[in-house]
Specification:
BirA Bifunctional Protein, domain 2; globular; binds glycyl-adenosine-5'-phosphate
Length: 464
């Protein structure tokens, strides 16, 4: 009876040498490859697909939602493990005056141009200055319309009457729900400035040019933290948060050379910002914003104080001072962080595709396989699986050749595979197979949980 996995992958008692099946390892070049993997394996599906889909809306499938939960949990833990950060979950619908105070009603606009010939629509600030001056379509050279200002907020009506008095907006950022709760949180939690409030939630923007898969969509999730500080200490906190946030992305295994800071110049600064840096990632379509870190000064609390007529000042009991705190914001897109994780992890060597995800992000940490569908192997495998499941998110699979089963797990980023074969029955050892190198080693079954835990604790980032 054959007792080693039916694949061309080697198996030894110490990790075998990396087995690259074909050519050099490549990273993601074409987003279409990732979109296809995500659909095939259940990470992300086009929304309402049976009706032909709806532009730039996406649904997360069984593995996508696991990955997304991991992203959110890692972010939430990094924030709220700190003694000086509290969490909230504010409503999506807010008083319409919030958006006047925030500047979104007047200022959250993009200039939009349409091509009269091919009907393409562009953000005027994103097309080449010369083409814009000549009013020439970048696609077909047809004539462009004059730029029109377009407010990005989605409007709806609250209650049965659809009149102007009932207009409410779907929030375009989660931040405002934090500002209007600043006093509620500081008083109820007895936090003293400096402290922060974090929130994860949906935001909506009627983007003119959504696209690049889940990079820019009209409905997305943000992970935002607003840190309230004494004026004068804001730049020091700003620098600290910049470092904390880039380290968080690096700790998720994102390659260092693919991340950089981009400082907003005077022309780029948002209406609220005193200083702003983006953390950018190099996607196949170029360097783009992943997260924004902003010094928002006292703009937000000042405006809400002015528009609501309620005092939002903080009273410092130690120094007996009263002031409006400055705010340092860290604002990351949850979907965009997830996209970065997938893009960064994608590997292809001419034969094999795998996601070299950090185990903290992987939907499954380990997969268990009986070598064949023989009752004695399946029974042993089920036992190993139920032990591993107590500790890690695990899966099991007995369909098809072992090589194919490994490949399926590679494509969804499962760091380890465990195979139960005939030697397992007599020697109580299993084959542990490493996703990134395909190396295999023989481990006593009773040591598996500890062995995998140690590997995760000492994980030093994805291979390659
Ligand atoms: N509160 C500040 C704020 O919202 P932003 O730079 O407009 O700042 C922050 O957005 C982050 O939200 C971005 O870095 C990006 O990750 C994410 N984001 C913004 N618009 C998005 C969209 N249309 N689709 C997906 N993510 C988006």
């Amino acid at each position: 009876m054959k007792s080693t996995p039916e694949s061309n992958e080697s198996q030894t008692s110490s990790p075998s040498a990396p087995q690259s099946s074909s050519g050099a390892v490549q990273n993601l070049k074409d987003m279409a490859d990732l979109v296809s993997l995500c659909k095939r394996r259940g990470f992300v599906f086009p929304s309402s697909e049976v009706y032909g889909g709806i532009n730039a809306c996406w649904d997360y499938g069984p593995l996508g939602i696991e990955l997304k939960r991991n992203v959110k949990e890692l972010w939430w833990k990094a924030m709220t493990d700190r003694e000086d950060v509290e969490g909230i979950d504010a409503a999506i619908l807010m008083h319409p005056r919030v958006w006047e105070a925030s500047g979104h009603v007047a200022g959250f606009v993009d200039p939009m141009v349409d091509c009269k010939k091919c009907k393409s629509r562009f953000r005027a600030d994103k097309i080449d200055a010369e083409a814009l001056a000549q009013k020439k379509c970048p696609e077909c050279k047809g004539e462009l319309t004059e730029p029109r200002q377009f407010n990005l907020m989605f409007k709806t009506h609250m209650g049965p009457l659809e009149d102007s008095a009932s207009v409410v907006y779907l929030r375009p950022e989660t931040a405002q729900g934090i500002y209007v709760n600043f006093l509620n949180v500081s008083q109820s939690s007895r936090q003293k400035v400096p402290f922060g409030i974090s929130q994860i939630g949906k935001a909506f923007r009627n983007e003119i040019t959504p696209g690049n898969f889940i990079f820019r969509t009209r409905e997305f999730e943000q992970m935002e933290m607003q840190f309230f500080v004494k004026p004068g200490t804001d730049m020091e906190w700003f620098e600290r948060w910049k470092e904390i946030r880039i380290k968080w992305h690096l700790n998720n295994g994102i390659r260092k050379e693919k991340l950089r800071f981009h400082e907003h110049g005077p022309g780029e600064l948002a209406h609220y910002a005193k200083a702003a840096f983006d953390i950018e990632y190099e996607f196949p379509f170029g360097w783009q914003e992943l997260e924004g870190i902003h010094n928002r000064s006292d703009f937000d609390l000042g405006r809400h104080q002015q528009f609501s007529g309620k005092k939002l000042e903080y009273y410092d009991e130690e120094t007996k001072e009263r002031y409006l705190p400055y705010i340092v914001e860290t604002s990351a897109g949850c979907d965009r962080t997830l996209l970065v994780a997938l893009v960064d992890a994608y590997r292809f060597d001419g034969d094999r595709t795998w996601l070299s995800l950090h185990p903290n992000l992987s939907p499954y940490k380990v997969a268990v396989f009986p070598l064949m569908k023989k009752p004695e192997l399946v029974q042993y495998s089920d036992k190993v699986y139920s032990e591993l499941k107590k500790r890690f998110r695990a899966t099991t699979d007995d369909a098809g050749s072992i090589g194919k089963r490994y490949r399926r797990q590679d494509e969804i980023g499962t760091p380890f595979g465990v195979t139960i074969d005939y030697d397992t029955l007599t020697q109580h050892t299993v084959t542990l197979r490493h996703r990134d190198t395909m190396a295999q080693e023989r481990i006593p079954a009773e040591r598996l949980v500890d062995f995998i835990s140690e590997k995760f604790q000492n994980w030093n980032g994805p291979a390659v």
